[in-house]
Structure formats: C-alpha cells, structure tokens
C-alpha cells in the first residue's frame, strides 16, 4: 500500500488480505482456531507468529487483522489491536500498563464508564488518580508529578463538547515521562490526528462512527508496535477481550464509508448549530465549530471540522428538555452516537444519571442539556425537525 494515499483511499483498501479465490469483499474467517501442517510449525507459532500466522482467535484472526491494519493505516499508528467493545479497549489500555502505587492524571469530563474505571476501579487496585479540568493547562501542570505514569483524556469530551489541547498536555506529560492515552471517539480519526498531536496511545469505540450504522460493539487500541504487540496484546490475550471476526467484518464495511459519512454528518451538524444558535428556547448552543465555543480557536487548530456532535441547553430545565425531545419526529431518542440516524440523549437522566447533582453541575451537565448526534439524513429535513421541536419547547 502506498504511503501517500489519502485517508479515504486507505479506508477502502488497506489491510485487505485475499485468499486464493480472489474474493472482492473481505472474507469472514469465522473460526476459533487454526490447523498447523506439522508439530514443528505449531511449536514455532507458539514461540512467535508472523503477521499472517494465527494460533487462536482470542490472540488474533485474519478478518480481525484486516480491520486492525486498516485502522492503523488510517490513524497513522504502527500497530492496532481490536477489542470486543470500546470499554474493553479502555480497560485493557489502562490496566495493561498500571500497577499498585502508580499515579494517573485524567480529565474529569469523561464518558461515564471511563470515569468509573479511573475514579472507582483504578483506586481499588492501588493506583492513585487525580482528576483535573482538562481545559485548564495549569491544572494539568499542577497535577503531574515525577512519578506520574499515565495521562488519560477525551477530546472532544462527552457530553459538553470541551476541547483539550492534546499537544500541550502531551508536552507536559512527556516532560515527566508519562504516557498519553487519548479516547478519540467524539473527534473521529477523520477530523483529529491524535498521534501526530503527541498521543502515545489512541482508543476508539468502533461501535460509534466506525460502524456508524448501529449494528455491532467494537473497540480498538492504536499506538507504537512495542506497546500494542507487547503489554497490550499480552493483557488482552490472557483476559479475553478480543473482537469477534464477524464484528471485524462489519467494521471493515463501515470503514469503507467512514470519511464520507463523517464529513456529511459534520457539515449537517455545522449547519444545524448555525440555524439554532440564539433561538429563544435555548440557553446555549455548544458546537466546536461555532465562534461562540469557549475553545473555538483551539478547536480550529486541532480539528478539521467541529465534528458530528452538538449540545443544546434548553431553557426550563428537565421539563424544557423533555418537551424538545418528545417533539422530535426524525431524531431518535437513544444513547448511541456517530450513527447514520440522528440521535438525541438527555445525559442527566440517562448516561450520567449515576452521578450526583453536584458532580453533574461540576461537569456542566444541567437538567436542560441535551446531546445531539447528527446523522446522515437530509440537512434541511433535520433542521426543520429541530427548529420545530424548539418551538414546541417554548410552549
Ligand atoms: C461509547 C464510548 C466508549 C465505550 O465504547 P463501547 O463500545 O460502548 O464499549 C468509550 N468512550 C467514549 C468517548 C464513547 O463514546
């Protein structure tokens, strides 16, 4: 494959392995194991296997490897390992390199389950964790220590769409020798090049934009070969979080249209943000592509577009938000994101219900806040649906 191919070309072709049949579409190798031609080969493969040699599907599989190689090429990473879900990826990426006594600094505005891992699980195993306001570089600097092992952050953050200066945080973290792990789900590999910005490890929930059609769970971890094929692979091999070959095949189909979908969804998100900003039913409109976004300058520097997600704060708290949600006709009420169908979520009563009111307030998750994942529907239809629901919310 060619070094100078663009992301869209890589998303269609990279990683493909054709069998002797020359199939056009990637084959699903729905097999748990592999047969060795002789005992010597089996012995050798257990010592070390080449890129096209497999032992057991928990360790690797040809269809899964195609997905891993295609994602690595898209991200500009040396290697990738696919997992059963995004959370299997986050869990393994952190636990494979931490031990009791280590220190971690993480941004506070994290996906709910990521917050559970850093705030509840890691301390249970003796890892000390400091949570900071990710947008405040002075807070990162104050929290980092000579013994900090790892930094974990999410930008764009969920659900308030804050942007963290990845290059600046990476410089601070690397100065104390800490690894930088970035959950890049909201920004997508199309719009944010986290490895180029300084991340050591990048994580995706492939359930979101990569599949993009709401079918399968999946996750992936990308980074340097010595990390991915070293401690990460060893951890997943023995703890069982591997991706199924069928799901890898669905993800490969998703990748073929990833660039097209993300660009269309971001263009519509931008269009809607501009159409609704200042509406009398709204307290605020949060979209990283708007000049009014608190980190508009950083967002423009770090990402190619404002992304596919919007956050709207309705007037009238929960009642106002519920009136808006229930009046939508096209946009579906659910909690996935990055899907071809537009989706609305009320974080305070669903994804972030577990948090106390104080914790939600600290994260900027008010009762009137809704999160909108913009899909592939016609932009004019969506705009009309959302403006209509805003009118209903006023009543
Ligand atoms: C969805 C999501 C995850 C978890 O992924 P699953 O595939 O649901 O396990 C992690 N981080 C972010 C930012 C997400 O949106």
Automatic annotation (TrEMBL):
Domain of life of the source = Bacteria
Q: Which UniProt keywords apply?
A: Amino-acid biosynthesis, Methionine biosynthesis, Pyridoxal phosphate, Transferase
CC annotations in GO: cytoplasm
Per the entry, which co-factors are needed? pyridoxal 5'-phosphate
Q: Name one GO molecular function term.
A: pyridoxal phosphate binding
Q: Which is one Pfam family of this protein?
A: Cys_Met_Meta_PP
Single GO BP term: homocysteine biosynthetic process
Catalyzed reactions: O-succinyl-L-homoserine + hydrogen sulfide = L-homocysteine + succinate
CDD domains, sorted: CGS_like
Q: What is its EC number?
A: 2.5.1.-
- SUPFAM superfamilies associated with the record: PLP-dependent transferases
Amino-acid biosynthesis in keyword set? yes
Transmembrane intervals = none
Which pathway features in its UniProt record? Amino-acid biosynthesis; L-methionine biosynthesis via de novo pathway; L-homocysteine from O-succinyl-L-homoserine: step 1/1
Which residues does the record list as N6-(pyridoxal phosphate)lysine (modified residue)?
208
This protein's assembly is summarised as: Homotetramer.
Q: Briefly, what is this protein's role?
A: Catalyzes the formation of L-homocysteine from O-succinyl-L-homoserine (OSHS) and hydrogen sulfide.
Family label: Belongs to the trans-sulfuration enzymes family. MetZ subfamily.
Check the record and name the NCBIfam families matching this protein.
O_suc_HS_sulf
PANTHER family per UniProt: CYSTATHIONINE GAMMA-LYASE, TRANS-SULFURATION ENZYME FAMILY MEMBER
Q: What is this protein called?
A: O-succinylhomoserine sulfhydrylase
Gene source species: Amaricoccus macauensis
């Amino acid at each position: 494959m060619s070094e100078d191919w663009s992301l869209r070309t890589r998303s269609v072709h990279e990683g493909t392995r054709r069998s002797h049949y020359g199939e056009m579409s990637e084959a699903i190798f729905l097999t748990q194991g592999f047969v060795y031609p002789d005992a010597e080969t089996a012995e050798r493969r257990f010592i070390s296997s080449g890129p096209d040699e497999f032992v057991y599907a928990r360790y690797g599989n040809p269809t899964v490897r195609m997905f891993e190689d295609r994602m690595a090429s898209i991200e500009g990473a040396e290697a990738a390992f696919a997992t059963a879900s995004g959370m299997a990826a986050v869990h393994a990426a952190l636990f494979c390199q931490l031990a009791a006594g280590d220190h971690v600094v993480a941004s506070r505005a994290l996906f709910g389950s990521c917050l559970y891992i850093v705030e509840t699980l890691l301390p249970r195993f003796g890892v000390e964790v400091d949570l900071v306001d990710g947008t405040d570089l002075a807070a990162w600097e104050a929290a980092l220590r000579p013994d900090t092992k790892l930094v974990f952050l999410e930008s764009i953050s969920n659900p308030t769409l804050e942007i963290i200066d990845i290059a600046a945080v990476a410089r601070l973290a690397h100065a104390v020798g800490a690894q930088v792990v970035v959950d890049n789900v909201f920004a997508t590999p199309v719009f944010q090049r986290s490895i180029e910005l300084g991340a050591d490890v990048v994580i995706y929930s492939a359930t979101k934009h990569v599949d993009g059609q709401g079918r399968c769970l999946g996750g992936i971890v990308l980074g340097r070969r010595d990390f991915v094929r070293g401690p990460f692979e060893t951890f997943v091999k023995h703890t069982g979080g591997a991706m199924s070959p069928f799901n890898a095949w669905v993800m490969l189909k998703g990748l073929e249209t990833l660039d097209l979908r993300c660009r269309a969804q971001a263009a519509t998100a931008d269009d809607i943000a501009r159409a609704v900003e200042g509406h009398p039913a709204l307290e605020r409109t949060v979209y990283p592509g708007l000049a009014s976004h608190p980190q508009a300058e950083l967002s423009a520097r770090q990402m190619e577009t404002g992304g596919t997600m919007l956050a709207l704060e309705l007037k009238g708290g929960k009642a106002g938000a519920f009136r808006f949600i229930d009046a939508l006709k096209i946009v579906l009420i659910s909690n996935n994101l990055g899907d071809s169908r537009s989706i609305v979520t009320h974080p305070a009563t669903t994804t972030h219900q577990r948090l106390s009111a104080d914790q939600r307030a600290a994260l900027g998750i008010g009762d009137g806040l809704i999160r909108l994942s913009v899909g592939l529907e016609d932009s004019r239809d969506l705009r009309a649906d959302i403006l209509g629901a805003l009118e209903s919310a006023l009543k």
